[in-house]
Design goal:
Elements: E1 3-7, H1 12-28, E2 38-42, E3 45-50, H2 53-69, E4 77-78, E5 84-86, E6 90-97, H3 103-115, E7 120-125, E8 128-133, H4 136-149, E9 156-161
Antiparallel strand pairs: 1-8, 1-9, 2-3, 3-6, 4-6, 5-6, 7-8
Helix pairs in contact: 1-2
Length: 162
């Protein structure tokens, strides 16, 4: 039976490369001379350190530009964390790299497919959604529907099987 998996999976190698390029640019730019601006990547968490809120914004702009150049969708970054003050006049912001579909998005995809009256079924399997159907054309129509109706998540479709 034909099927595919809808997953949320960033390319962590490209994320690492974008962070490295950002660090290199911060080291060479004149407006960052003598500041403590830097970006660190641990597992799936980015931490931006700077001297002020304005500098964090500048570092974030550089990071987003580098990620875009490396074809990493910026919707993978969860920037909802507040800017925290750390000793003296230094600040930091924690940014998480989303990986795996959260339960709310998975349920949204599942109900979307059920309401579309297509001849496909969706099942939540851990951090992905498996969609199965009798025909390849139905699965491709389901992919188009998911892309159209769930624009806030950079979904990819893996394990397409006939």
């Amino acid at each position: 039976m034909p099927s595919f998996d809808a997953v949320l999976d960033p390319n962590l190698v490209e994320v690492r490369n974008a962070v490295d390029q950002t660090a290199k640019e911060i080291g060479t730019r004149f407006d960052f001379k003598g500041s403590s601006a830097r970006v660190e990547l641990k597992e799936k968490e980015l931490t931006i350190y700077a001297d002020s809120d304005f500098q964090i914004g500048q570092v974030l702009d550089i990071l987003l530009a580098k990620m875009t150049k490396r074809n990493v969708d910026v919707r993978f970054l969860d920037r909802t964390a507040k800017i925290e003050k750390i000793g003296g006049d230094k600040v930091k912001q924690l940014i998480t790299v989303k990986s795996g579909i959260d339960t709310d998005t998975a349920k949204k995809i599942q109900t979307l497919i059920k309401q579309s009256k297509m001849k496909v079924q969706a099942a939540i399997q851990g951090d992905s959604v498996r969609v199965t159907g009798a025909k390849r054309d139905d699965l491709q129509a389901a992919m188009a529907l998911i892309r159209k109706e769930v624009p806030d998540a950079p979904l990819t479709f893996d394990n397409f099987r006939d």
